[in-house]
Amino acid sequence: MILEPKTLFDKIWDAHVVKQVKDGPDVLYIDRHFIHEVTSPVAFLGLEKRGMKVFRPQNTIATPDHNVPTIDQHLPIKEELSRVQVETLKQNCAKNGIELYSLDHKYHGIVHIIGPELGITQPGMTIVCGDSHTSTHGAFGSIAFGIGTSEVEMVFASQCILQPKPKKMRINVEGKLHKDVTAKDIALYVISKISTSGGTGHFIEFAGSAIRSLTMEGRMTLCNMSIECGARGGMIAPDEATFEYIKGREFAPKGEEWNKKLALWKQLKSDDNAVFDAEYQFDASDIEPMITYGTNPGMGVGVSGNIPTGENLTGSDRITFDKSLEYMGFKPGEKIKGKKVDYVFIGSCTNGRIEDFRLFANFVKGKKKADSVIAWIVPGSKKVEQQIREEGLAEIFEAAGFALRQPGCSACLAMNDDKIPEGKYSVSTSNRNFEGRQGPGARTMLASPLMAAAAAITGVVSDPREI
Predict the structure, then answer these.
(1) What is the pTM of this model?
(2) Which residues, in sequence order, are CB contacts of 385 under 8 Å at separation 6+?
(3) Lower CB count within 10 Å: N or C terminus of the chain?
(4) Residue 2 pLDDT more than 70?
């Protein structure tokens, strides 16, 4: 019997289907459920009303991240809603026997940072969280996606979720990346080409020599941004880089169990003749350091380029384009380089890992921050913060005029104290630049840690290759 070739996505999905509902969604088993303080309270409440407890608490990991302050974390949280949500998470985890990495825990951090760095995230898993950027974990060859509050409750109750099976897309990026081009630039380039709706209804597998050349932290950045083109999630087939990253981490398999897992993980790849519903091909040599100019992640341009004129746009697309530039205070056709920058933020689940801070530190070493720029340097976890200090990066930041903050989602979203003031321009290493995303009236330009570093030093949008 000849088996039909399968994609990596199909192999993992099909292995987790508990039941297929006729003409409906699949009942999918979930291996790991990450939760935080924002999307879990209502789900816990629903469970309580039904007189139930979490079915498999050992498969659930909790940490507060969205609402937490990034200075003085030893003090009570000032903002009432944030304080209540963090305290409620603590109480709910205690009631249900769930492991909580609270603000004072050595493993505390952003949910999508701590999963991989602790070895909890592993190839072949299904992973969910009440957060869009759960797609980050797909970098390890897992199916990971965000879910809503009612679905969080469903996973609490049954360790399963009702989910229609997405279509499959493969995005191939072949060739060698230019110097100073990072995974963030690949992500922004791809989204600028296929649009913020180009991946709708699909799960993306990223492939090609340029993707294989990325570190695991770079792959996490790319998969993190996959939902910004409308996809359900993104994934990359595990390889030696994946296995080397996981090996020896706190919750990674050990001894004979490691050997068994490794043998299984090495089989996780798309078959040679597997068919995808859509495919894209990109040349790595076409990508330069990217930055956004508008109010969605698809409005991106190479730093040496111009803001598009929008002359080929019609109807609602043209209206959206004009409205976006008006909000940003930009004009069609003008250079993006040289635009004023007021704030710089490096952090978030997109670029809050140690590699991102090493990149930033290498660039700013021996230089001075522009006096006009306020910079927030926010590690994605306590472990990342510890590495920054142990490697001497904190001293480099301080000498250049930067101050290191404490872990949290910070200025990625306006749910904590780190908000960009109205009308101010921010170069941010986070994932979204919607109107008001970083604060009411804030103007956000998404970019890589290198682009953020260049902006912080010069006070304007700059090409790191020229400095």
Answers:
(1) 0.97
(2) 379, 404, 406, 407
(3) N
(4) no
